[in-house]
Design goal:
Radius of gyration: 33 Å
Number of domains: 2
Structural class: alpha+beta
Shape: elongated
Order of helices and strands: HHHHHHEEEEEEEEEEH
Largest sheet: 10 strands, antiparallel
CATH class of the largest domain: Mainly Alpha
Length: 387
């Protein structure tokens, strides 16, 4: 296994739920996950081999949409880094202002004391020593002079410390500004790459549409896509049966009618409705929404599939245990990998137009033991009013 898979397995292992059975149980979980990853890798290669026998245009579409996903994810990470660094820069500037005010007050205070000392005269201590009429008063005054002198030294040291802290803050601000400049450059470069890849995708779609001009070709493709999905789900169920999900929340079946929709939008295709004039019916729903809208997991689970698939584009499948799975298709970018655990409501993708779609939206399915169930009966309200 390559170094990439080894590193990824370790990261997936760290995401496993905590258990109190000690190192032995942890090692067993790591071994189970490694076996799952190896089998999933074999299944993925088989799927890619099957898809590679399709038209060259579809292979190009797969490649360019996977690159779009990677670049979109990079842009999201850059955006998050920019936001974090902006907040840190704002905090540094607040600290700089506070330190400048402290320094100003310290300087005013020491200046005031210097004026008082000057008014008393530089020879005041000598005069006290020569005053033989009240030696006790002279002694006390000399003690006070000592206190004042030491206090001034403490204040001067405080000024020096504040000035040093201020210099460090200013250096941090300069460093953070340079980081922000670099992130802006990276974002601009990534945005340009994304525009180029989207333009390339348009050209591929023209080629695909020319290959599917007749209705029989489109019908055959839809049927093949559904069969391929059924085969994938059956393989996933077989693989995951050996490693049952260890979910901390209530069973998925008890959530019927309570799930939040995975994205906010408008239902443009409903479960069971006919798909145009093809004679086939929708096995899930289409949620129309702007490209880049966040897609959230409807419930806790483990990512069972995260890749491009013909007819569904960038597809994410989450296993919720007890034979229940949720499917999220036509995404712009996938944010999770196979084996990762996700929480209810966690962002797992952003929706888009992958899979050859011309309008952005999310294809959402729920399955139980491989059979599709109506998402409308499982989710509360309408997706337009998603919490």
């Amino acid at each position: 296994m390559s170094r990439f898979w080894s590193v990824f397995l370790l990261s997936c292992f760290l995401l496993l739920p905590a258990s109190g059975n000690g190192a032995g149980d942890a090692a067993e979980k790591a071994a189970e996950l490694e076996a799952l990853r190896a089998r999933m890798y074999t299944l993925q290669k088989e799927l890619e081999s099957n898809q590679s026998r399709k038209s060259s245009a579809e292979r190009k579409l797969r490649d360019v949409e996977k690159k779009i996903s990677k670049t979109s994810y990079e842009l999201r990470r850059i955006g998050s880094a920019l936001e974090a660094n902006r907040r840190q820069l704002a905090d540094l500037k607040d600290r700089q202002n506070e330190q400048a005010l402290v320094l100003q007050k310290q300087r005013r205070h020491i200046a005031s004391e210097a004026r008082v000392a000057y008014a008393m005269g530089r020879q005041q201590q000598v005069k006290l020593l020569l005053n033989q009429e009240q030696p006790s008063v002279a002694g006390r005054m000399l003690t006070y002079f000592g206190y004042f002198s030491r206090a001034r030294m403490v204040q001067i040291d405080s000024i020096h410390a504040t000035m040093e802290a201020l210099r460090e803050t200013e250096a941090s601000i300069q460093g953070k500004t340079r980081i922000l400049g670099g992130l802006h450059d990276r974002r601009q470069s990534a945005s340009e790459r994304l525009r180029e890849k989207k333009q390339a995708r348009k050209q591929v779609l023209v080629q695909i549409n020319s290959e599917l001009q007749n209705q029989s070709g489109e019908l055959r493709r839809l049927g093949e896509n559904e069969k391929q999905l059924q085969k994938l789900l059956a393989s996933l169920q077989e693989l995951l049966a050996d490693i049952p999900a260890e979910l901390s929340q209530q069973p998925f079946r008890s959530l019927k009618g309570k799930l939040h929709w995975p994205a906010r939008g408008r239902l443009t295709a409903r479960f069971g409705n006919r798909r145009g004039s093809s004679g086939l019916v929708w096995q899930g729903v289409m949620i129309s929404a702007p490209e880049g809208t966040r897609v959230r997991a409807v419930s806790q689970g483990r990512v069972a599939f995260a890749d491009w698939m013909r007819g569904f584009g960038l597809l994410l499948i989450i296993d919720h245990g007890e034979g229940y799975m949720s499917l999220y298709g036509h995404n712009q970018a996938l944010y999770k990998e196979v084996g990762e655990w996700v929480d209810t409501g966690e962002v797992v993708a952003t929706l888009g137009t992958s899979g050859g779609q011309t309008r952005s939206g999310l294809y959402f399915e729920l399955r139980h033991n491989g059979r599709p169930v109506n998402p409308v009966r499982w989710c509360a309200g309408e997706p337009a009013s998603r919490s």
